[in-house]
């Protein structure tokens, strides 16, 4: 019981502190942002032929079920709790085109901004990751994400948030994300974001007839860590074009500062009660 009480009070303290000192904390975060250039992935859809090697590699690396035999233009798949990346086929005026879907690893992620306990975290290296030990299960990240990426394991007795981590643990050890390594067509390239933007521009300028003259993700919602090169306008391939260039956390600041503390603290309070209740039940069983 003692440990649960301490953890509960710690959670309440973190959340309360974030509310009380929200403005100064945000200012401090801004100063520490971008200490290093983010890593990113450049996805060139003109080189993708829908082989699903990226899906298979992800499934093998993280013990997910093997992906079904797709893509099929009649079915638009979304990422889910057992698939962190999917490739869809889309019928266009230029014939069948392919489009990857996964976490975009925003430079200023709305999911991390909405997370009261910092379970959803933008790393210095670039990937946006979910940290189980800090999560209180409020699912605010799911509501906040403009791309509808984080997925909650509703059917699991120990539910987790599932989303692409850009193979963060491998990245910090100097390795390349599994999906990138597995792509036989080199439709994906991993590297520093600034370098990938330069490479994307070079491809457009060198072969202007093959590309739509835009790098999707360069400016959307403040920029993302998954950059797209396409032959057609991004909207024709299912990418959202209504999000603007302002980072989503900028829209949320005024709202967050005006939310009554009780509404924000309530989920943490319920979490503490649940943990304490579980501890009491376990002690009764032992006795």
- Tally of alpha and pi helices: 10
Largest sheet: 3 strands, mixed
- Approximate strand percentage: 5-15%
Distance linking N and C termini = 15 Å
Coarse morphology: globular
Q: Could you tell me the CATH topology label of the largest domain.
A: Alpha-Beta Plaits
Domain count, please report it.
2
Mean pLDDT: 84
CATH class bucket of the largest domain: Alpha Beta
**Low-pLDDT ranges:** 1-34, 255-263
Instruction: State the share of residues found in helices, binned by percent.
Output: 25-40%
**Which CATH architecture of the largest domain would you pick?**
2-Layer Sandwich
The run of helices and strands is HHEHEEHEEHEEHHEHEHH
What is the radius of gyration? Answer: 21 Å
Sequence of strands across the biggest β-sheet = 8-1-9
Q: Given the helix and strand composition, which structural class is it?
A: alpha+beta
* Number of E-type strands: 9
């Amino acid at each position: 019981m003692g440990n649960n009480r301490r953890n509960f009070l710690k959670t309440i303290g973190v959340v309360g502190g974030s509310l009380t000192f929200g403005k100064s904390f945000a200012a401090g975060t801004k100063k520490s942002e971008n200490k290093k250039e983010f890593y990113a992935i450049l996805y060139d859809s003109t080189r993708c032929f829908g082989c699903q090697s990226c899906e298979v590699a992800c499934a093998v690396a993280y013990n997910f079920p093997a992906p079904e035999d797709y893509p099929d233009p009649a079915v638009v798949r979304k990422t889910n709790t057992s698939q962190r990346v999917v490739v869809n086929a889309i019928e266009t005026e230029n014939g069948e085109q392919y489009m990857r879907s996964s976490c975009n690893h925003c430079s200023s992620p709305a999911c991390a901004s909405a997370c009261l306990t910092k379970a959803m975290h933008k790393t210095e290296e670039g990937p946006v990751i979910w940290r189980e030990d800090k999560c209180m299960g409020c699912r605010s990240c799911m509501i906040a994400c403009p791309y509808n990426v984080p997925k909650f394991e509703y059917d699991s007795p120990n539910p987790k948030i599932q989303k692409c981590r850009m193979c963060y643990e491998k990245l910090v050890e100097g390795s390349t994300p599994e999906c990138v390594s597995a792509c036989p067509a080199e439709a994906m390239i991993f590297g520093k974001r600034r370098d990938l933007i330069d490479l994307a521009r070079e491809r457009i300028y060198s072969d202007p007839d093959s590309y739509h003259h835009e790098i999707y993700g360069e400016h959307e919602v403040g920029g993302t860590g998954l950059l797209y090169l396409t032959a057609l306008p991004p909207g024709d391939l299912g990418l959202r074009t209504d999000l603007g260039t302002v980072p989503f956390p900028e829209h949320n600041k005024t709202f967050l500062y005006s939310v009554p503390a009780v509404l924000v603290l309530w989920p943490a309070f319920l979490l503490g009660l649940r943990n304490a209740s579980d501890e009491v039940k376990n002690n009764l069983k032992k006795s």
